[in-house]
Amino acid sequence: MHFVREACCVYLRKPSTVHLDWQCLLALYRGLDVLALCLVWLFVPGTERQIATMEEMNYVFGVSTRQHVEYQVKEVGPWCIDHYIRRRRGVDLEPLYRWARGRESAGGDATAD
User: Fold this and answer.
1) Average pLDDT along the chain
2) 106, 94 in Cβ contact below 8 A?
3) Shared-domain flag, residues 16 and 53
4) Domain limits at 93?
5) Which is higher by pLDDT, 17 or 9?
6) Do 24 and 63 fall within a single domain?
7) Are the C-beta atoms of 73 and 17 separated by less than 8 Å?
8) Is the dihedral of CA 56, 98, 66, 7 positive or negative?
């Protein structure tokens, strides 16, 4: 990871020594934005519905990162492709979180207390 950070610092701080024009810098920023989008999609749990209590928030952020990433890659990714690209509207997404009061969010396998 140090290598990536140092390479970005060299390109961004001293463009005159590396001879990058504005199009190359724009492409670099675009690539970093796409990388950031992918990392946020993988690692940040979504709260698409309004969470009413601190217990619910604790439950959402209490799910392990590994379980969340596996869910995003194995369930949400294929569902997005089927739903938005292939236009298969009948495919339902299995939620990651199951709420005790019957409310559900896109997300887990356990029941909140």
Assistant:
1) 77
2) no
3) no
4) 48-113
5) 9
6) no
7) no
8) negative
Same domain for 38 and 74?
no
What's the pLDDT tens digit per position in 72-108?
Answer: 999 989 998 888 888 888 878 888 877 665 544 444 4
Contact call for residues 106 and 60 (beta carbons, < 8 A): no
Order of all β-strands in the sheet with 104-105: 104-105, 97-98, 110-111
Residue type for 36, please?
A
User: Is pLDDT above 70 for 69?
Assistant: yes
* Angle subtended at Cα 100 by Cα 97 and Cα 105, rounded to the nearest 5 degrees: 30
Same-domain check for residues 60 and 113? yes
- Does residue 63 sit in the same domain as residue 39? no
